[in-house]
Amino acid sequence: MAGDVAGTKPLIGRKAAVTGSTSGIGLAIAEALARAGADVALNGFGDNAPALASVGAFGTKTVFVGADLSKGPDAQKFVTDAQAALGGLDILVNNAGIQFVSPVDEFPDDKWDAILAINLSSNFHTMKAAIPAMKAQNWGRIINIASAHGLVASPFKSAYVAAKHGVLGLTKAAALELAETLVTANTVCPGFVDTPLVRGQIADQAKANGISEERVVKEIILASQPTKRFITADQVAETVLFLCSDAASGITGSSFSVDGGWTAR
């Protein structure tokens, strides 16, 4: 990687895997990585063809690797399949997540288990599978997409808040274990991003509070963010790109808030 190519495509030759990347934040991250020159393995629910076309448009190798991330062996197999398809793995971005809104005393057990499995345990399983090769090559980037809810809480989101707090702890522990290598582990903590997941939360909050979705956006969702603006998926993706860069090689075990000032309160 030299000259102008390194400047315009700093990740050329790198191999990346991004969970939950067929839409929303994950897709924006996958597109940013491909634009920077990385080969990318996608993963997610629904029709993956539009995401493959969008990410593949940047000219790097793009593959889809299906996996049920709620199951530990499948999450680990996602990594090994991505490694096989791409010829290695340098960057792991754990972005997959689900949400459910309910008071603690009414929270369905199965919803709690599903959220913890996908939002937290899948990160452990993919990291466990990816770290040995990263250690062997003495280079790697693990970036876990947490949330402002990894730092602060909100009512009716006990499972999500617990899982995202856990992601920060898991990432810090891995960062300390890997500190003497050139493998870093960090978290990005977005505020509310206008994605299908957040739109689902808005609908749930409207039902729980008996108000319109418009009022939820104004009085509940963006009330948390002093900027009064949604974060964009591209803003999160650019933060991930920075953490993949050589400039960020000294940063590990850190969390980066992209939340419009939410957690500054």
TrEMBL record:
PROSITE patterns named among the record's database cross-references: ADH_SHORT
Cited Pfam families: adh_short_C2
Molecular-function GO term, any one: 3-hydroxybutyrate dehydrogenase activity
EC category: oxidoreductase
Keyword Disulfide bond (UniProt): no
E.C. no: 1.1.1.30
Keyword Iron-sulfur: no
Domain of life from the UniProt record: Bacteria
Keywords: Oxidoreductase
Alphabetized Gene3D superfamilies for the sequence: NAD(P)-binding Rossmann-like Domain (3.40.50.720)
Any one GO biological process: monocarboxylic acid metabolic process
Homology family: Belongs to the short-chain dehydrogenases/reductases (SDR) family.
Name used for this protein in its record: 3-hydroxybutyrate dehydrogenase
Lineage of source species: Bacteria, Pseudomonadati, Pseudomonadota, Alphaproteobacteria, Sphingomonadales
